[in-house]
DNA sequence: ATGTCACACCGTGTGTGA
């Protein structure tokens, strides 16, 4: 089972790259973030033509999340929205059961600046994820939480920790909440499980040639139930999709469980 | 160096969010 998470920074702008990716990697499940689409404009037909069924949770020009499942997989129990989230209109969480796995695609608020109202909303969203995974785990389901969590787990996930002093994405407030999500669902960070010592990133700012200068962050995750971890065959970041024609500022993260 | 991108809006540029 190949599971992918990818913040595409507009699905309309990225559709050619997404279809290219589907053809190249033949994933079973693809979780998308920042689809930036109206529901009515979501490219379900184009994705179906590429062999994928989809569930989307959309809010127009900002945010928006989706879960794609290859046509031969079972996609049931779809639900948009995160119980307890403050801004239900923002479309930052969608979940579905794919072949028995409870899969979520999450786009955590950026937070903008420490102490801002949106930073508090970011922390509250992370708390709501922890509450949700605890509930799903208690129901005995196997969980795969994916997405752009907009938090680095530790300083290895930051190209230059000193450059982020006083910024979001690196604070103890955010990192302790990410750890709390892992604990609440008894989940593991798939990339870190497979690569305990590597320093690779999933996001690079478009500006200033950050990608080519190695100036990135690891903020996109596949978190899965600890019981699934021994089945992890690989987990990698597809950096080639951060290059080429009209790339997203995020690279896809791919996890394979046997 | 707020140096890039994407989207909405009557717009050939500006505001907003990342």
What order do the helices and strands come in, and which of them pair?
Layout: E1 2-7, H1 11-25, E2 29-33, H2 44-49, E3 52-57, E4 65-70, E5 75-80, E6 93-98, E7 101-107, H3 117-138, E8 142-148, H4 172-185, E9 187-189, H5 190-194, E10 203-204, E11 216-217, E12 220-225, E13 232-237, E14 253-257
Parallel strand pairs: 1-2, 7-8
Antiparallel strand pairs: 1-14, 2-4, 3-4, 5-6, 6-7, 8-12, 9-12, 10-11, 13-14
Helix pairs in contact: 3-4
This protein binds one DNA strand of 18 nucleotides through loops.
Key terms:
single chain; 258 residues; alpha+beta; six-stranded mixed sheet; 14 strands; 28% strand; DNA-binding
In short:
With 258 residues, the chain is of the alpha+beta class. It is 24% helix and 28% strand. It is built from five helices and 14 strands.
Overall geometry comes to globular
The first-to-last residue Cα distance is 6 Å
- Taken in chain order, the helices and strands follow as EHEHEEEEEHEHEHEEEEE
Could you report the average pLDDT, rounded to the nearest whole number? 97
């Amino acid at each position: 089972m190949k599971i992918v998470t990818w913040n595409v920074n507009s699905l309309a702008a990225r559709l050619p790259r997404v279809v290219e990716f589907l053809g190249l990697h033949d994933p079973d499940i693809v979780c998308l973030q920042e689809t930036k689409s109206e529901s009515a404009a979501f490219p379900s037909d184009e994705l179906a033509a590429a062999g994928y069924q989809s569930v989307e949770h959309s809010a127009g020009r900002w945010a928006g999340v989706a879960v794609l499942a290859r046509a031969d997989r079972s996609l049931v129990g779809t639900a948009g929205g995160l119980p307890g989230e403050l801004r239900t209109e923002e479309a930052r969480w969608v979940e579905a059961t794919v072949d028995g796995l409870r899969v979520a695609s999450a786009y955590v608020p950026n937070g903008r600046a420490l102490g801002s109202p949106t930073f508090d909303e970011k922390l509250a969203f992370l708390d709501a994820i922890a509450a949700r995974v605890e509930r799903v785990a208690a129901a005995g389901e196997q969980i795969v939480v994916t997405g752009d969590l907009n938090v680095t787990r530790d300083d290895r996930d930051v190209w230059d920790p000193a450059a982020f002093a006083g910024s979001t994405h690196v604070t103890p407030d955010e990192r302790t909440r990410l750890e709390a999500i892992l604990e609440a669902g008894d989940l593991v960070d798939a990339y870190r499980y497979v690569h305990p010592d590597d320093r690779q990133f999933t996001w690079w700012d478009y500006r200033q040639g950050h990608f080519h200068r190695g100036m990135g962050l690891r903020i996109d995750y596949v978190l899965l139930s600890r019981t699934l971890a021994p089945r992890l065959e690989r987990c990698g970041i597809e950096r080639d999709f951060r290059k080429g024609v009209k790339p997203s500022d995020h690279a896809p993260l791919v996890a394979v469980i046997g």
